UniProtKB/TrEMBL annotation:
Record flagged with keyword Mitochondrion: no
UniProtKB keywords: Membrane, Transmembrane, Transmembrane helix
The protein, known as: Amine oxidase domain-containing protein
Pfam family for this entry, one: Amino_oxidase
Organism, as annotated: Rhizoctonia solani
UniProt domain Amine oxidase: residue ranges: 47-428
Gene3D superfamilies: 1.20.1440.240, 3.90.660.10, FAD/NAD(P)-binding domain (3.50.50.60)
GO biological process, one term: amino acid catabolic process
InterPro entries from the UniProt entry: Amino_oxidase (IPR002937), FAD/NAD-bd_sf (IPR036188), Flavin_monoamine_oxidase (IPR050281)
GO molecular function: L-amino-acid oxidase activity
Regions crossing the membrane: 37-56
């Protein structure tokens, strides 16, 4: 699909915003002295903040200067975060972003990687194995265990088995992918044929969640039981995803529909290599531990109108800039005092209301790559389950080697909110760690070689260390990514 849904969506939102403006707000021009330097304050040294700094340096214009202000005293990078258990080559996992699909709206990210020398030729860009080529990745639902291969075979059999996990849902009369595709097919078709016309039609349902549409608005209405099943088993394994706006879900589905299989990539050595490379190209280092607590207009003696913007740092220091660019998530920006900025009620409401979903990752370092030694080897990809850990991600790097770090739990949304309280700092409560090890054992059918019984003692014996992160509980993110909320809740 050559259509770039996210690009068109962004343009539609901008056009709608422009239509709501009666006129350009009156602004008193501030006449700068000739050859004066425009000093720019960049709030946040995550990838967006670093990208802004790179663009300013790329201009090579001496009239522009900048400062990067980062609240985190320990690191830059924001949600590009890699944890290393040791200095060994593959003894790490990506706590934040870990995989990059080569699709149209991700092209700027790949352009940035190329600019920073992160390419296939340099060896820093490498394939991410989204699905094990042997189709051995596991699905464990309703205490039924199937490999991807077994699931595909069951649905292609004669007659096909559409309830392989023995749920008893009588409405399961096709594969999950086909059921979901049928729900949104007409919307997608219209958007591809004529974006403006298709978008206008889709906006008629902007007051609906995807769940409401599938229940009450679809020409092929589904039952609540079936929708809940699809939400868990199909694709994202994200409980609550269909409670988001229907347009968001339609666009999300379209983003990953292409004639050829989507290529996925990772950054060799950890995704934070991207951050470190970007930072190394800047002439100004980010100032860490500089939490912005207030943004307000800055006035100068002899001037009736503000001549800049004043930032208060940690409630004490005051820095003045000609211009400020905030790259903070709205969850964090809402905690900054902007009461003197004369923001509109709708903007303040957006700060408070924009929904950021939670995400939790848990990784364990083992003494060996036991998942590659099973009868059904797991060579990359991921396995999913309705157990609390939800998703197990097998590393695409170091296959056949000695480093043995496995993402044993990866959950989003409501699922992450439930296991998040088990994460304290960068560790998991022992009781939940025991649960994960037990569920891993059952999922991978790890048995005693002598008795043939499930052996729950093997994995605890192989465990060396673990690390966990709850993005919703991190003061520097307070969530992971945003999803559109249906218009009935928040009109604009």
């Amino acid at each position: 699909m050559k259509l770039n849904p996210r690009k068109h969506h962004a343009l539609s939102l901008l056009n709608h915003h422009h239509e709501t403006l009666n006129s350009i707000p009156p602004v008193q021009p501030h006449i700068r002295p000739a050859n004066s330097v425009v000093n720019i304050g960049i709030i946040g040294a995550g990838l967006s903040g670093l990208y802004v700094a790179l663009m300013l340096e790329y201009l090579q214009d001496p009239k522009f200067d900048y400062e990067l202000l980062e609240a985190n005293p320990d690191r830059i990078g924001g949600r590009m975060y890699t944890h290393r258990f040791s200095s060994s080559k593959h003894d790490y996992y990506d706590v934040g972003a870990m995989r990059f699909p080569l699709i149209p709206w991700m092209q700027p990210a790949f352009d940035l990687m190329t600019y920073l020398g992160i390419t296939l030729e340099s060896g820093l860009l490498a394939p991410f194995i989204a699905s094990d080529q042997l189709d051995n990745n596991i699905l464990l639902f309703n205490n039924q265990i199937l490999s991807r291969k077994e699931l595909n075979e069951s649905q292609q059999a004669t007659p096909p088995e559409y309830d392989p996990f023995r749920t008893g849902i009588v409405e399961l009369k096709d594969s999950p992918g086909k059921i979901i595709d049928d729900q949104f097919l007409e919307f997608k078709k219209q958007l591809v044929e004529d974006w403006d016309k298709g978008w206008s039609n889709l906006m008629k349902y902007d007051s609906w969640t995807a769940r409401q549409y599938m229940l009450f608005g679809s020409p092929l209405p589904l039952t609540l039981n079936l929708i809940s099943y699809l939400e868990m088993v199909y694709g994202s394994n994200f409980t609550g995803i269909y409670d988001h706006a229907l347009p968001e879900i339609v666009l999300d589905v379209m983003n990953f529909e292409h004639e050829a299989p989507i290529e996925w990539f990772r950054i060799e050595g950890g995704a934070d290599i991207l951050v470190l490379r970007a930072a190394s190209m800047l002439s100004h280092k980010a100032k860490c531990g500089k939490r912005v607590t207030s943004i307000s207009p800055a006035k100068c003696t002899g001037h009736e109108f503000p001549t800049g913007i004043e930032l208060t740092i940690n409630g004490v220091e005051k820095f003045k800039y000609s211009h400020v660019i905030s790259t903070l998530p709205f969850t964090c920006l809402s905690l900054v005092d902007t009461s003197n900025c004369n923001l509109s009620w709708s903007i303040d409401t957006a700060f408070r209301s924009l929904k950021y979903i939670e995400s939790v990752k848990i990784a364990i370092k083992f003494t060996e790559r036991w998942w590659e030694k099973l009868p059904k080897k797991q060579l990359g990809g991921e396995s999913t389950t309705d157990k609390p850990m939800h998703t197990v991600v097998y590393p695409s790097y170091g296959i056949g080697g000695s480093s043995a770090v496995l993402i044993v739990g990866y959950a989003w949304g409501q699922s992450a909110a439930r296991i998040g309280p088990m994460v304290h700092g960068d560790k998991v409560q022992q009781c939940f760690l025991n649960t994960i090890l037990r569920d891993l054992t059952e999922m991978h059918d790890i048995r005693d070689s002598m008795t043939g019984n499930i052996d729950y003692s093997i994995l605890p014996g192989l465990m060396v260390d673990h690390h966990a992160w709850d993005w919703g509980n991190s003061e520097f993110s307070i969530g992971t990514v945003t999803f559109l909320v249906y218009k009935r809740c928040y009109p604009d």
